[in-house]
Write a structure and sequence with these properties.
Oligomer: single chain
Largest sheet: 8 strands, parallel, barrel
Number of helices: 10
Strand content: 15-25%
CATH class: Alpha Beta
Shape: globular
CATH architecture: Alpha-Beta Barrel
Strand order of the largest sheet: 1-2-3-4-5-6-7-8
Mean pLDDT: 88
Distance between the termini: 18 Å
Radius of gyration: 18 Å
Low-confidence stretches: 259-267
Helix content: 25-40%
Number of domains: 1
CATH topology: TIM Barrel
């Protein structure tokens, strides 16, 4: 699995700290923009517009439970389309109770498919959500959009490879982008893993001592190597830069040209 063609995540707040996206990641890079529970939709639209203007491919999250009404959704989708967004990630959202009429990503498929060519859905290799995921993929195709998957972040390649084989056996043909943590401290990894419900692969790292041996910073070199012979359905890697966008982007730039990554601490 090559690092070329990776995608990466940012928040609107994190994007404001980036002086130049074009100086950090290649032209055309898919940059996903998170939809936080209390985040302003205008901030996401402005971030998407800035990314498109910098030659990136913005992929905003659209969180179903964060939207107050159908009218708000329609205005948001139209605003994103007008600034150059052609792909989006549909998610339920980090909110237990919906603000409006939408309870999950499936509720957004029909209106989103009318604006965007590709719709991403979240894959959860360490949870049993396969049937719901495959139903959303089928609904996206029926609505006329290309479906794709971006997974929750994992710490070990084996977990996602087993999951890919499982959903392929259930009939999945949608391309997959494998989510990995970017450069981060062990403390940050533990914090975000707890928040996002990532468990099994992290417990494996903790149990055999690999996380404790990280000298200050984690890098995703281990899982990248483990995905070297991933099947064709895995179209690329997606990075969650918990240690900061610039640091993960610098790591990826060096790793693309120096696969040995000697300058970085190994996980």
């Amino acid at each position: 699995m090559k690092i070329d063609g990776f995608s990466i995540e940012t928040t609107p707040g994190g994007a404001r700290k980036v002086g130049s996206f074009a100086a950090l990641v290649p032209q055309g890079t898919r940059v996903f923009v998170t939809h936080l529970p209390d985040g302003a939709l205008d901030d996401i639209v402005r971030t998407a517009a800035r990314l498109a203007g910098a030659g990136m491919a913005p992929v905003p999250h659209i969180g179903a439970r964060h939207l107050e009404s159908r009218a708000v959704l329609e205005r948001y989708l139209d605003a994103l389309r007008s600034v150059g967004v052609r792909e989006a990630l549909l998610v339920g959202g980090d909110r237990s109770e919906p603000l409006g009429p939408f309870s999950g990503a499936g509720d957004l498929i029909e209106p989103a498919a009318g604006r965007f060519e590709r719709l991403y859905f979240a894959g959860h290799p360490e949870e049993d959500r396969d049937a719901a995921l495959l139903a959303k993929i089928a609904a996206a195709r029926t609505a006329g959009a290309e479906p794709a998957i971006v997974t929750q972040f994992v710490f070990e390649a084996e977990a996602v490879l087993r999951w890919e084989e499982r959903i392929a056996g259930l009939g999945n043909t949608a391309p997959i982008r494998v989510g990995l943590p970017g450069v981060a401290s062990p403390g940050a990894l533990l914090k975000y893993a707890k928040m996002c419900g990532v468990g099994r692969s992290l417990r494996g790292l903790w149990r055999d001592g690999r996380l404790l041996r990280v000298a200050g910073r984690w890098t995703p070199s281990g899982p990248i190597a483990g995905l070297r012979d991933a099947p064709p359905s895995v179209e690329g890697l997606h990075f969650f830069p918990f240690g900061g966008f610039a640091e993960t982007a610098a790591y990826l730039a060096e790793a693309r040209h120096a696969p040995s990554e000697r300058r970085w601490n190994q996980s």
